[in-house]
Amino acid sequence: MKKLINNPVSVVPEMLEGLVRLSPGLRLLSDSHVVLRQTQTEGVALVSGGGAGHEPAHAGFIGPGLLHAAVTGDVFTSPSTDAVLEAIRAVATPAGVLLIVKNYTGDRLNFGLAAEMARAEGIPAEVVIVDDDTALEAGPENAGRRGIAGTVLVHKVAGAAAAAGLDLAAVKAEAEAAIAALGTMAVALSPCTVPAAGKPGFTLGETEIELGLGIHGEAGIRRVSMASADRLTEILLDRVVAQKGLRAGDKVALLVNNLGATPVMELLIVARSALASLEARGISVERVWAGTFLTAIDMAGCSLSLMKVDAARLARLDAPASAPAWTPGQ
Amino acid sequence: MKKLINNPVSVVPEMLEGLVRLSPGLRLLSDSHVVLRQTQTEGVALVSGGGAGHEPAHAGFIGPGLLHAAVTGDVFTSPSTDAVLEAIRAVATPAGVLLIVKNYTGDRLNFGLAAEMARAEGIPAEVVIVDDDTALEAGPENAGRRGIAGTVLVHKVAGAAAAAGLDLAAVKAEAEAAIAALGTMAVALSPCTVPAAGKPGFTLGETEIELGLGIHGEAGIRRVSMASADRLTEILLDRVVAQKGLRAGDKVALLVNNLGATPVMELLIVARSALASLEARGISVERVWAGTFLTAIDMAGCSLSLMKVDAARLARLDAPASAPAWTPGQ
Amino acid sequence: MFDLADIIVREQGKLSEIDGQTGDGDHGVNMGKGFRIAGERLRALPSFTLPEGLALLGDTLLSDIGGSMGPLYGTFFTDMSEVLDGKDSLDAADFSAMLAAGLAAVQGLGEAKPGDKTLVDVIVPASQAFNAAVAEGKSFTEALEALQTAAAAGLEATRDMVAKVGRASRLGERSRGTLDAGAASCDMILETLAAGLIKQLAT
Amino acid sequence: MFDLADIIVREQGKLSEIDGQTGDGDHGVNMGKGFRIAGERLRALPSFTLPEGLALLGDTLLSDIGGSMGPLYGTFFTDMSEVLDGKDSLDAADFSAMLAAGLAAVQGLGEAKPGDKTLVDVIVPASQAFNAAVAEGKSFTEALEALQTAAAAGLEATRDMVAKVGRASRLGERSRGTLDAGAASCDMILETLAAGLIKQLAT
Ligand SMILES: Nc1ncnc2c1ncn2[C@@H]1O[C@H](COP(=O)(O)OP(=O)(O)O)[C@@H](O)[C@H]1O
Ligand SMILES: Nc1ncnc2c1ncn2[C@@H]1O[C@H](COP(=O)(O)OP(=O)(O)O)[C@@H](O)[C@H]1O
Ligand SMILES: [Mg+2]
Ligand SMILES: [Mg+2]
Ligand SMILES: [Mg+2]
Ligand SMILES: [Mg+2]
């Protein structure tokens, strides 16, 4: 394992220190892995988070119009209930706190328990669960779809709703509607290496790639041979479009996300390909992003997220926002 | 080689199409690899460029307060004289054109010849050569220092000077002063793979890294064993500080640049380390950036650039600018 | 209690390896961290009762380790401790109530049913075996031994199950054929707790 | 002229390999692309004179290939063509003037001196040998043969040189021990041009 780190046990505090030093609008809650805005606002506060290893998520999306705080656990491990509760307390307003949680047992339990404890302290707290990984069939026989890169667009919609002064129930409802409208699928060209493990979580042959993998290096749904960018884009979009029931005439936002080690050259080629494919399907891409939003450490590959939008949701995506890792859609 | 591409011969046009589709302010000159602003301005126009493979450079830095056009060659190959001349003609104003060129024989020759031809057509054209790679000793015995990631800061200084309405000689003088104040050094953890070659340009052992390498996968100055982020940062900064004669009390801008495949986690750890090291040296970091600015395709590793600043140069770095890959310094 | 902390810390490599087969390979890291910290805190105390020890362990898991096991094992130990509250020594009835409280905590939070391939598949047969032995008039020690056997069998039975909850559930049929990591740590925990009590009862 | 285009296209792998040892391994790719395009354009013409062929080659290199070789070889061929302007056949004096113009073009642009480990280290000894043979009263054909021998020797001599210009110069002493890529392509070019003329003179 070759990584620009000092010690696997210190990657999380060191990178968070780096982030807040580079982001004058952010600060670190002392003795914790909770990052929050320098100055808090009135109204509903948004808290996100999860295991580390997804940088720039989640702390990179803190700022006006987006999140109020993010709680980071160890690499690929949900933060503890106490850590989440600390974050909630730090940003709570009388309007309450909405927790944006990805669908993993650990995150659900820790954020869920923390929300319960917060309510017991008199802080209105609600939870939404993001489950955008359309690679998987959801059902009673499993823990449901995972939350992956589309989470970033949920942050944006909820952040704009909160900034617009909506109450907790209304912000929650908008976030849940955005989640229902969202689907994502990823392709990995290489596995990722957890610093503490020191070696890749799985191995792929010279020409093998993995479709529908998770953002923690969990196995995907299918291992296939390497194919062209156009072909892979088609496979990812076919699945998301089918699972989310998208049809010609629908309007969507498209997020092309680097899983960690993908060069800009390749992201741009995939973005071009995805735009052409959606156009051919008669699906209108109202906004598009291509960049590094939510990663699996150093995995090579990308994910494509589609969120169905109407004028109201588009306005949320377009609303002014400023955070270290946020860029306006085009 | 696993890459999200369609065909090695089409990577350059496809990625440029992706870029302009994602950047409403940019357009592609028809039948060429010249990207320029949708609307041109009065005053001195700036043209940069070079081989492809350095994305988001150079076209990602086109926009108000920055470049007016960028010419892209094949991967790691200077664009032709004709292509550069086309770009010059497309953006030329009576105030003239400044070409920002990195110190490679091919770039010097093609941009230099194009400037001569432009002048023959009555277009005032000047060239500045960026040679920030302080890993190398410059001297009569070689072609001088290479131009690498610090070029992005030269774009910014010159772009602000041009936007401020200075004349060609004055913009050129500011760019040259910025170049003289600039030093960069890089460390590679992995080689890069040119799509047309299909295999890495060199090989590194399990624990080997390369110091002072070039952004085309050229050999570095020294192959050493993997070390901690703090130690590597120290080695890079020692060299740049010594070569640029920086001393306690000096003010600098710091650019932490991803060479292509480095995760955000690692960049943030290096940024934290560099800030601490410079502070310990009594060198004041007035502005800092950490991100993906000028890459060597999919190389893992980073470069550190220091540009000495006074109030006037800092104002150039802070001047408003907007381009797909530009973010304000902190 | 020290034995408990020590065995989890010692076996963390094995637990991560099991988790790696169908999960993300960090079960041992997570558990090892929590039990190491709890062990240090316990060693710093002049003395403590079993309920106090369990409470400290539960607190540590809840506040310091995160992941799915932090809350699940955290409330498991916390709720077991509450049942015993104030007691200095415990009898078979206390032990039975303690197991019931632990199971209720885990199921209340994680909603796993027997057969879902989790630690529940160790706790349920282990406490059933214990209660059955007591009902048959066996001694506390004999009942604890029955629990140990049943816990180990419960773990072994997870091998042929398909995960229905947690990370491994996304693999569907592909999760069959390997042990469950949480069940493996739970077997260690119950067997070690029982062994400690058996030793204590013998003196 | 077709031979010239063909040999460079055919040998591009070898040229890139040589460039890979001290440069960035693309010399063959760059040259191959330029000579392939030029070859196609030449084949599309009903007929052309040598100066016309050289001019087209120079133009193609200048406008289509970029890199350092685009302008260097581009002006090399363009300037050689200009010396011959209008001529349909050429004598030894023309050929000598042509080489001088090519060398001046390359040096004017790239500022490489003999010994800097570039194509100049092939052009200089080759044209010196040609001129010396002519001065000694040798025939045009004999002088061309002398040029071929000297070009090959010039290439071989680059092996022991340390690069002073271009990409390889950053390696300093480490650039010693391998041939220079530009010198290798230049040797092919001069030897092939000479062979063509020799064949023509023999008929
Ligand atoms: N809903 C649940 N209820 C009870 N136990 C669960 C549940 N989900 C997962 N588990 C247990 O958690 C174990 C994995 O723990 P661990 O690896 O520490 O957490 P994570 O899956 O977050 O990486 C599984 O082996 C299983 O026994
Ligand atoms: N200044 C120069 N003058 C003449 N020839 C040069 C000069 N610099 C480099 N060369 C030649 O260019 C060759 C490399 O060409 P090529 O690989 O196509 O370009 P690049 O170095 O840009 O990749 C070298 O082998 C050398 O012969
Ligand atoms: Mg985990
Ligand atoms: Mg080159
Ligand atoms: Mg796990
Ligand atoms: Mg080369």
TrEMBL record, chains C, D:
It holds the Pfam family Dak2. InterPro entries: DhaK_L_YcgS, DhaL_dom, DhaL_dom_sf, Dihydroxyacetone_Kinase. SMART domains: Dak2. Keywords: Kinase, Transferase. One of its GO terms (molecular function) is glycerone kinase activity. GO terms for biological process: glycerol catabolic process. Residues 1-195 form the DhaL domain. It comes from the Bacteria. GO terms for cellular component: cytosol. NCBIfam families: dha_L_ycgS. This is Dihydroxyacetone kinase subunit L. It comes from Acidisoma silvae. The gene is dhaL.
